[in-house]
Amino acid sequence: MVGKFETNKDLVQELTSSGARHVGKIATIITGTVSEVTHEIGEWITDAIEMREAAAAARQDAAAARQDEHAAGEDGPDTHPREATDPTRPRADVRYEGSSSATENGAAQPIIDADVEYIDPHE
Q1: How far apart are alpha carbons 111 and 114 in whole angstroms?
Q2: Are residues 66 and 87 in contact, defined by beta-carbon separation less than 8 angstroms?
Q3: Radius of gyration, alpha carbons of the chain
Q4: pLDDT tens, position by position, for the chain (123 residues)?
Q5: How far is CA 80 from CA 31, 61, 69, 86, 94, in A?
């Protein structure tokens, strides 16, 4: 026959073991959740950085196009704005639909693969 002391010892042992398993499972859940949240926040910040860089590239392209238009008005056609800009800076990826796809005037439609963020310079 098992005595009261041994019964209580077994109960405490099982409760402790069960508690440790549950705490471990909860810690695993929390660790996984923190990891996933951190990953999503990092992705979100990366998206914001890429949008800012794309907006800066678009502003530089527009400035280069204005300079080329101004120069073309004085001296005739100049180099294309993409050729005149710094090749190391980030740019939006511009593709054109297939040659069979054209607008009303026959020019191919550009497809710009970029997210653009408008940044107020006064902020």
Answers
A1: 9
A2: no
A3: 31
A4: 778 999 999 999 999 999 999 999 999 999 999 999 999 999 999 999 999 999 999 999 998 888 887 776 654 444 555 555 566 666 655 565 554 444 444 555 666 666 666 677 776
A5: 53, 10, 10, 12, 14
